[in-house]
Structure formats: structure tokens, C-alpha cells
Specification:
Length: 214
């Protein structure tokens, strides 16, 4: 895996900083809406994105639905083509339309194996897009992370982009881009280490792997 440390100061991330191979989508009015939402809630996006057409992007810790508001605003504002899985019940009404515009894919969480298989099929087809995943799978303090994202990255030879939402800084932070070595224990520990300096909205809901490091 490449990269190390806990970056305390990351540069602002704007559309002009995004490389030509990064998959993009969305109309300019939608991008304006995303940037307006971020300003309205007092957040910004920082860090650097790799210039690659396909990747697995994970967001952690995930302790609040507010994380989703920040994340979707950032995706829309930067016009990134990130497809992310979300439970079917969230896709009702106007909120569902916004989720789909941002790249949301409704899934039946009762079929976890089927979700991983379908995701691998989409990525293996070669279309340029990034897969977004919250590996904790819940906002309520998971006992362990779901490792489907790691299997997908290893089997398809994709980098893992680590993103977090820090409520102390009010920043959506792109912390690092890691190339997995293939050993889940080694790779996950490297990811956990990058999240040591992050303050979630509800620290009491941290997943067990992150809580053990505090």
C-alpha cells in the first residue's frame, strides 16, 4: 500500500484539480447545486483524487445520515461519477431522485452476496466509474467492517480511495489512495490508521475496529 501518516492540513479540492481520466457526470446546474449546499451547511472538500478511471472509494466512519448529505453535495459539486449502494427505502420521493442523480443504486440488503457479485460485474465490464461504499454498513457502531469492497479491489486490481467526514474541521477529506497488498488484515489496519485523527458526528457510534484505536 502507498501513502502513510495522518494529514492535518489538506488542500481544497475543486473541479480544476481533477485529472482527465477521472470519471465525470452531471450537468453544470446540478454541480452548482452541490457546491451551494456545501457552502450553505458550512463544509468544504479537501485532499487530492487519483487520476484513474476506475476505483473503489470508501467513506468512514459513518455515524449519521448527515454524512450522506455532505457526501452527495460533494459528489454533485465536483461532478464525479461515483456509483454507491443504498438501501431501497431511501429511494422514495424527491430524495430518491436526488440520490439517483448523484449515482445511487438501490439494493436489497438481504442479498449481500448478490450485491458484491453485481458490483464486480459492473466494474469488470470496463466502464469508467468509481464505486462508493460505507464499509461499516450501519450508523450504529458495527462490530466489524464488511470486506466486500476489499475483495472487489483486489480481484479487479483497483485502488482504494479513503474518504472521511470530519465534524471538527467541517471537511469532507480525501485522505489517501491505497493499492491493496491483498491481505485483508494488513490492508484494513492501514485504512484504520488513516482515520485516527477524524472526529465523526457521533463518536459513541464508532465501529469497533476504530473504537479500539482511540
Amino acid at each position: 500500500m502507498a501513502g502513510s501518516g495522518h494529514p492535518s492540513d489538506l488542500p481544497p479540492l475543486t473541479p480544476a484539480d481533477i485529472g482527465p481520466r477521472v470519471p465525470r457526470r452531471g450537468a453544470r446546474p446540478v454541480a452548482w447545486l452541490g457546491r451551494w449546499l456545501l457552502r450553505a451547511i458550512g463544509w468544504r472538500v479537501v485532499g487530492r483524487l487519483p487520476d484513474v478511471p476506475r476505483a473503489v472509494m470508501i467513506a468512514a466512519p459513518h455515524t449519521s445520515n448527515y454524512d450522506g448529505l455532505v457526501g452527495i453535495s460533494a459528489i454533485l459539486g465536483l461532478r464525479l461519477d461515483i456509483r454507491f449502494m443504498a438501501k431501497q427505502s431511501l429511494f422514495r420521493g424527491p430524495a430518491g431522485a436526488l440520490l439517483r442523480a448523484a449515482g445511487g443504486i438501490p439494493v436489497d440488503r438481504r442479498r449481500p452476496g448478490g450485491v458484491v457479485a453485481e458490483t464486480k460485474r459492473l466494474l469488470a465490464a470496463g466502464d469508467p466509474f468509481w464505486l462508493g461504499i460505507t464499509p461499516e454498513g450501519t450508523r450504529e457502531g458495527a462490530g466489524e467492517w464488511k470486506t466486500g469492497f476489499h475483495r472487489i479491489a483486489v480481484e479487479l486490481g483497483l485502488p482504494i480511495i479513503v474518504v472521511t467526514f470530519c465534524y471538527r474541521r467541517r471537511e469532507a477529506r480525501v485522505l489517501d489512495t491505497l493499492w491493496p497488498v491483498g491481505d485483508p488484515a494488513v490492508d484494513l489496519e492501514a485504512i484504520y490508521a488513516r482515520l485516527d485523527d477524524v472526529t465523526p458526528r457521533h463518536p459513541e457510534r464508532l465501529s469497533a475496529p476504530l473504537r479500539r484505536r482511540r
